[in-house]
Write a structure and sequence with these properties.
By secondary structure, the protein is an alpha+beta fold. It has four helices and eight strands; from the N terminus they run αβββββαββααβ. The chain has helices spanning 3-25, 81-88, 110-123, 126-133; strands at residues 33-34, 37-45, 52-59, 61-63, 66-70, 91-96, 99-107, 140-145. Strands 1, 2, 3, 4, 5, 6, 7 and 8 form an eight-stranded antiparallel β-sheet that branches. The longest helix has 23 residues, at 3-25. It starts with a helix and ends with a strand.
Length: 146
């Protein structure tokens, strides 16, 4: 693993840790939104370990029970581990404001992504910058209740 990859991975871990601390210290009163975006805790099953894995993410689109996630990893050239996990096992859980529910996650089709991307960028322009940093196709993930 390159130094750049290690720094990126450590940065992502630190941001997740800080977010969890904010939720814990505030008793869950703060940290469930960032700007106009809902935040969720995504629970996947590790594709290699079989262990439950959790990560804090933003959902730039949230309509009713549908949540849209972006596998950007800050514009890194690698997919985030959480994305690889849900591709291998699409039965996931989302914790939203302290309530955990079962969802099925899937990668948006090219047409779906094209329709969703302008709304994603409107919610957080940084996603557009992330796509500009990498040649990797940044997946958009649609989570629907199961």
């Amino acid at each position: 693993m390159t130094l750049r990859n290690r720094v990126t991975d450590l940065g992502m871990l630190a941001m997740n840790g800080a977010h969890r601390i904010l939720l814990a210290v505030s008793g869950g009163r703060l940290g469930w939104t960032i700007g106009s975006m809902a935040t969720v805790e995504l629970h996947t099953i590790g594709r290699s370990s079989g262990q439950r894995r959790s990560t804090m993410l933003t959902a730039p689109i949230h309509e009713g029970d549908l949540y849209v996630l972006v596998a950007s990893k800050g514009g890194d050239d690698r997919h985030p581990s959480w994305y690889l996990n849900l591709v291998a096992q699409p039965e996931v859980e989302l914790t939203i404001r302290r309530v955990t529910r079962p969802f099925r996650a899937r990668t948006a089709s090219s047409a779906e992504k094209a329709a969703l991307w302008p709304r994603i960028i409107a919610a957080y322009p940084g996603y557009g910058a992330y796509q500009g940093r990498t040649d990797r196709h940044i997946p958009v993930v649609i989570c629907e209740p199961r």
